[in-house]
Structures are given as C-alpha cells and as structure tokens.
Amino acid sequence: MGHTQTIAQLLAWATSELAAADLAGPRLDAEVLLAHSLGINRAGLYACLHNVLSLPQIVAFQKGLSRRLQHEPVQYITGTQEFWSLEFMVDPRVLIPRPETELVVETALRLLSQGSSLKSPVPSRVLDIGTGSGCIAIALATELPAAEIWATDISSDALAVATTNAQRHNVHERIHFLQGPFFAPVAPQEHPFGLIVSNPPYIARNDLLTLQPEVRDWEPRHALDGGRDGLDLCRQLVNEAPRYLSPDGWLVLEIGDGQDVEMLSSLQENPDFAHSLCFPDYAGRGRVVAAQKK
Predict the structure, then answer these.
(1) Burial level of 190, CB count in 10 A (0-12/13-18/19+)?
(2) Which distant-in-sequence residues (6+ apart) come within 8 Å of 226 by Cβ?
(3) Which of 53, 192, 264, 279 has a C-alpha 20 to 30 A away from that of 286?
(4) pTM: predicted TM-score of the whole model, two decimal places
C-alpha cells in the first residue's frame, strides 16, 4: 500500500484484509473504522471517496484496523455503541449493548403502560440489576422522566462507565449507581420497587469457549458466565425479586436462546408471582420473560 491513498482505495484494501482474516461484515467494519479515524460519519466517507488522505491519517486508520484484525470488537475500538437511539460509551470494562436487549426496555414500558391508572401509576422506583454500561437504566430514565432509578453492578469499573453514560444523557441525577451483587446494595431500603429489570449473565459455562473470539476474548467474563447451565443467576433473580417488588410490580429479564421454557416454569412455580409472560425477539426466539407480583 502506497503513502498516498484515496478513501475509496483505502476502503477496498481494508475490506480485503478483513475478509482474508475471515471477519464478518468486512466492508462495514472498514467503513466504520475509517470514518471513526477521520472524525466523520459513514455518509461523510461517501461524499469524499476520491479525497487523498495524508500519511498520518492512513497510519491512524491502520492502528484501528490492526486491532480489528486481532478480533477486538469494533465498538471497543471506536468506544461507542448505539442503544435505544442513544449513543453509549463502551470499552472492555463492560458488555457491549446488544439490539436484543432493547426488548427489555420495550417490554418494561409496554407492561407499565398497560397497568398505568390512578390505582396503579407508572412506578416511581425502578431497579436495574447488573447494569453494565447503564444502557437499560438510562434508556428507562429517558422514557420515564418521573422515575427514580437504582442500578447495581458487582464491578466498580462498569459503574464508572455507566456513570459517564448517565451524565452524557443528563439523567445522572435520577439514577443511583451502587456496587455489589444482586440486591445486596439495596437491601437496607424499606420501599419496594415497581419495576425490576436485568440482563444477567446467561451463557452456560461450558459454552463460553465456543463463543466468537470477539466475545470470548474481549468482553468481561463475569458478565457472560451464567453457571453450569447458564441459569444460575436468572434463578436467583426470580427467587429474590419478590422481596423487593411492590404488589403488582413487574420483574423483566433477558434470557438466552432456548431458556424460555425453563424460566417460565420457574416463574410459574414461584408462589409470589401472579402470572408470567414470554416475549420473542425479532428472530422469533424467546428473549425476555416477565412476571407480575401478586
């Protein structure tokens, strides 16, 4: 590759390098990484395909490209991921927000709006367990301006990222970030929550090694490992949540592919819940389970 390259030439070269390394979506990755290194968006790339780049610009792009060739996720290289039409800062301290997780937010809002009345108003207190980047808590805060939200995580590093994201979206004054496992950080509180949400780790431990290298080698292990069958933490949430839910309050959980039958059974067997539901993602897989306290 020469010292003078147009954007079009650089994109073609980078796409072939990524494709040769057997990375999915090589053209898209090349565009995102080049746009990021130039400080423009992808539309901006196409507006100036024939512009010649300087050597420092090419070198900056090559640094990002070499990271991608090591299977580092694009989101960690650019430091951003969109979720619920909001831009989140992400790095290896937190799981990268997935489009499927938007279904947790969507489900929670739908269930709350159905139950909203003078008798049962939209809850003023919401709890997000294992908040990670803060994406669920922050999306709910933007949609529920009257709500006060508590968000817990065992990782102080994750909470630092979540706090930054909450400040970025001007909801930091309504979200209390607390460090600790599960409900421990909110156990001293006397008032229950009208909504508890979580995207817990749900990958079976033996399956961790079979994940894509981008996930297996880069994303935080504690945010993925769900124990022997992947459901250890989900079951614990189902067992402990009723203590912290107000009557008619909702528990909304993301689950993994093929876990819907067992999780619905766990919810139905729990005498504290009145009824439970399962919501499929866009691929038709059971992705979110929800249950309402009696």
Answers:
(1) exposed
(2) 200, 201, 202, 203, 204, 205, 232, 233, 234, 256
(3) 192
(4) 0.90
Q: What's the pLDDT tens digit per position in 257-270?
A: 889 899 999 999 99
Sign of CA dihedral 152, 154, 158, 160: positive
Structural domain boundaries of the chain? 5-70, 94-293
For residues 155 and 135, give the distance between their C-alpha atoms in angstroms, rounded to a whole number.
15
Contact 148, 218 (CB under 8 A): no
Gyration radius of the chain over CA positions: 21
| DSSP line for 108-122 | HHHHHHHH-SSSSPP
Rounded Cα gap, residues 128 and 196, in angstroms: 6
Pick the CATH number of 94-293 from 3.40.50.150, 3.100.10.10, 3.40.350.10, 1.10.10.10: 3.40.50.150
At position 283, the amino acid (one-letter code) is: A
Residue spans of alpha helices (H) in the chain: 7-20, 26-38, 42-47, 55-69, 74-78, 102-115, 135-143, 156-168, 213-216, 232-244, 260-269
186: which DSSP letter?
G
Q: What is the mean pLDDT of residues 270-283?
A: 91
Angle among Cα 122, 280, 126 to the nearest 5 degrees reads: 25
Report the phi/psi class of residue 170: left, alpha or beta, with left for phi > 0 and alpha for psi in -120 to 50: left
The pLDDT score that the predictor gives to residue 123 is 65
**CATH 3.40.50.40, domain 5-70, yes or no:** no
The phi, psi pair for 258, rounded to 5°, reads 85, 5
Which residues contact residue 271 at a Cβ distance below 8 angstroms, ignoring those fewer than 6 apart?
A: none
Distances (CA, A) of 49 to 8, 12, 238: 5, 11, 53
Q: Is the pLDDT of residue 120 over 60?
A: no
